[in-house]
Amino acid sequence: MEKISLEPFDRILSDYEQKAELAVSVGACSTLAARCQRFGVEGYRLGDFRGAGYLNRYVYYSVTQAPMLIYRRNYLIPLVFRQNPESYELFAEEFRLEGFFILLDWYLKNEPQKVILKDRKNQDKSHKYQEYTVIDSAFLVFRLSEIIDAAGLPLSQCQNLNDFKTWNKKHHLIDNGLVGRHAKLFDEEDKKQLSELKMILNIIQLKYPQVPLFI
Predict the structure, then answer these.
(1) Fewer CB within 10 Å of terminal CB in the chain, N or C?
(2) How far apart are CA 187 and CA 42, in angstroms?
(3) What pLDDT score was predicted for residue 210?
């Protein structure tokens, strides 16, 4: 299988300062789009986007001529990531790409505001790609690493829901949004939290097939 390479990318401008991160090489985009076709990717393009997202710690920035996957007609997934190990790992193991799209689908259905790039100028009619919604791909890579690399092994050893609840109370993988003494407690009566746990276990099973679906 052809390796997907990342290379330095310096066409990021934030607060009038040029930023350098990583991007999939243009030469590898066609291969990547074909590999991800089964997940809903329809091709790729180069283009500009702007917003506030995880790539620059939610400070407003703009990117020019970035490679982006076209996803389910309505979305663009920038192939621009932060310079850290999890960005390389996304393409080092095939199962991580599948996990990336499982994660993206869950967020789009349940918490779209967390994965859609926040553009303070989204009413600008001259914006070239206003018909598309741009995904915060850097956040998804970070969250995917939290699930697989930080939580994967301990959750692979959980045998039931109580085991998970005890572990989650300390490590806060699923956040119920509450404050005080009930903060970070997993609520098994909450359908959204249950669906998030099921999604997390499905991703972890990609690396640890023996993980039981204990919900």
Answers:
(1) N
(2) 37
(3) 84
Residues of the chain with pLDDT below 50 are 123-128
State the amino acid at position 214 in one-letter form: F
User: Whole-angstrom Cα distance, residue 78 to residue 156?
Assistant: 31
Distance in angstroms (rounded) separating the CA atoms of residues 78 and 24: 9
Closest-CA residue to 213 (of 154, 153, 158): 158
Residue 131 neighbours by CB under 8 Å, 6+ apart: none
Enter the tokens of residue 101: 């799209």
CB contact at 8 A, 197 and 205? no
| β partners of residue 51 | 61
* Residue pair 69/33 in contact by the 8 Å Cβ criterion: yes
The pTM for the full model equals 0.91
Q: What is the pLDDT of residue 127?
A: 45
pLDDT tens, residue by residue, 64-80: 999 999 999 999 999 99
**Amino acid of residue 176:** N
**E strand segments, the chain:** 6-14, 17-24, 41-52, 60-71, 75-78, 80-81, 133-134
Please calculate the CA angle 32-34-36 and round it to the nearest 5 degrees.
Answer: 70
* Dist CA 57 CA 46 (whole Å): 23
pLDDT digits (tens, 9 = 90+) for 118-147: 886 554 444 445 579 999 999 999 999 999
CB–CB of 66/40 below 8 Å? no
